[in-house]
Design brief:
Blueprint: E1 2-7, H1 12-24, E2 28-31, H2 43-55, E3 60-65, H3 69-75, E4 83-85, H4 89-97, E5 103-107, H5 113-125, H6 132-147
Parallel strand pairs: 1-2, 1-3, 3-5, 4-5
Helix pairs in contact: 1-5, 2-3, 4-5
């Protein structure tokens, strides 16, 4: 698996934690920043990650900002992206199993680094169940094809 990861200024610390986790799990990653504590615009980081996932250059993406909300909204504007904003372990598991989410968004001001690592680990190691869920994901893709 390979993952693109990025954060804005509000998610730098948790991004570094998740990079450490991916190194421990031997997951290849591309770090798209940011390295600053001054304010930056989250779409400038969310969209490049989403584009890499949508193009197939990477299999999945992880985005972190202060709340995760801005990153998830921006990423979901890219065709083919199913970005899930997650702050608990159950949702991390189910969004992979049922929704085949391809980007995980989290908020550093909402959760701490320990929980963020556990969420990311769960999300990275959980597979899509397909079955009855595949039809639902396909309906989203069909709607997206017509309306974008």
């Amino acid at each position: 698996m390979n993952v693109a990861i990025a954060s804005d200024h509000g998610g730098v610390n948790i991004r570094k934690e998740i990079i450490s986790l991916m190194e421990e799990l031997n997951i290849e990653y591309i770090d798209l920043g940011c390295e600053c504590s001054t304010s930056v615009d989250y779409p400038d980081y969310a969209v490049p990650v989403a584009n890499k996932v949508a193009s197939g250059e990477v299999e999945r993406g992880i985005l972190i900002c202060g709340t995760g909300i801005g990153m998830s909204i921006a990423a979901n504007k890219v065709k083919g992206i199913r970005c899930a904003l997650v702050h608990d372990l159950y949702s991390a598991k189910v969004t992979r199993e049922h929704n085949d989410s391809n980007i995980l968004a989290m908020g550093e001001r909402v959760i701490g680094p320990g929980l963020a690592r556990e969420i990311a680990k769960t999300w990275l190691t959980t597979s899509f169940e397909a079955g009855r869920h595949k039809n639902r994901v396909n309906k989203i893709a069909s709607y997206e094809a017509i309306h974008k």
